[in-house]
Write a structure and sequence with these properties.
The chain crosses the membrane at residues 25-44. The protein is an alpha+beta fold. The protein has helices spanning 2-20, 25-47, 227-233, 245-253, 294-314; strands spanning 64-66, 69-71, 76-77, 91-95, 98-103, 106-114, 119-124, 149-151, 156-162, 176-177, 189-195, 210-216, 235-239, 257-261, 266-271, 274-275. Among the domains are: 2-48 and 290-314, no CATH class; 134-143 and 155-231, no CATH class. Strands 3-4-5-6-7-13-8 form a seven-stranded mixed β-sheet, covered by helices on one side. Strands 10-11-9-12 form a four-stranded antiparallel β-sheet, covered by helices on one side. Helix 1 (2-20) packs antiparallel against helix 2 (25-47), helix 1 (2-20) runs antiparallel to helix 5 (294-314) and helix 2 (25-47) packs across helix 5. It is elongated.
């Protein structure tokens, strides 16, 4: 009903404005278009998936489900998507509705993906399988250093200290005893430190202990003795793709679709006539929202009234 009333207003404005100012039809159409976009924007926004890959990547790369997660570019789901749908390190495996990502020696279970800000939350499967072996915590996230994933600075540092040479009375009160070391008499402790810093140095800590660190997202009121819950809560990773969604949008609007070249693991724009040689655009194209371009200027001038109804019929 709102769109119908708006169309009627557009028609009245168009007839009046064009009769008074026969050379200002483009302005009328522009007003009409702006009003339609403003009123339809919330409707469109509410129906768009959080992943900005639909209709921009290959038809074989439509987002796929694994449990309650939607997997799309730059991630791709093994067994569902061909490798051209994402980068090597973004390969996701779905097992019993659980999405996991194998990276180096560790396997990370994906809890949530935030496509709008290029981040995702994971837990280390080997550390959350119920086996609390503190010696396995050493370098539990070390295999992330040379990948497209970076530990987010909003995480906190959960520090484990074991084989300490000093007695409990000589150590900080904020250190909580850990009971899952192989040798419970080895003076093992957990300490929930501050914000994550990739170059943090724990060599100056007291106790002459062996030290390892795990990033954790944490929660309000968390303390060191909650180390098992903190580990199971996971941590946040930021990811970097070689090309962003804007590149794929340019490719799609020009008649192509994005794909990853599996040979050199880079994004390409596949056009109907083959691979583009001019960035992410197939030939020359005019944006559908550029009213200054000459073809659209003619369209506005000649068909401003019908343009209103055309937009309505599309919606």
């Amino acid at each position: 009903p709102r769109l119908l009333r708006l169309a009627q207003i557009c028609c009245v404005i168009d007839r009046f404005h064009c009769s008074m100012h026969p050379f200002r039809a483009p302005a009328t159409a522009m007003i009409c278009l702006a009003m339609l976009l403003l009123i339809t924007l919330p409707i469109a926004s509410s129906t768009v998936d959080a992943i900005n890959t639909t209709n921009t990547t290959s038809p074989f790369c439509e987002p796929a489900r694994c449990g309650n997660l939607t997997i799309g570019y730059p991630f791709w789901l093994a067994g569902k998507h061909p490798p051209e749908c994402g980068y090597r390190t973004f390969q996701v495996t779905c097992d019993h509705r659980n999405a996991s990502l194998k990276n180096g020696i560790w396997t990370y279970q994906i809890q949530r993906i935030f496509y709008h800000n290029s981040s995702f939350m994971v837990t280390n499967e080997q550390l959350t399988d119920g086996q609390c072996v503190i010696e396995s915590f050493v370098n539990a996230s070390s295999d992330l250093g040379l990948t497209q994933f970076k530990i987010s600075p909003i995480n906190r540092e959960l520090v484990f200290l074991y084989n300490c040479s000093q007695s409990r009375r000589q150590l900080p009160i904020s250190w909580a005893p850990v009971s899952c070391a192989k040798n419970e008499s080895s003076n093992s402790y957990a300490w929930l430190a501050g914000k994550y810093k990739p170059d943090d140095d724990f060599r100056q800590l007291p106790g002459n202990c062996t030290v390892s660190m795990i990033p954790v997202l944490g929660y309000d009121g968390a303390v060191a003795k909650n180390y098992e819950r903190l580990i199971k809560g996971g941590f946040l990773l930021d990811y970097t793709a070689a090309a962003g969604p804007d590149d794929c949008e340019d490719c799609s609007r020009s008649g192509g679709w994005c794909r990853v070249n599996v040979t050199y693991d880079g994004l390409e724009c596949q056009c109907p006539e083959g691979l583009t040689s001019s960035g992410f655009t197939c030939g020359k194209f005019v944006s559908a929202y550029d009213p200054i371009s000459s073809p659209f200027r003619f369209f506005f001038h000649q068909h401003s009234l019908r343009f209103c109804f055309a937009v309505i019929s599309i919606r």
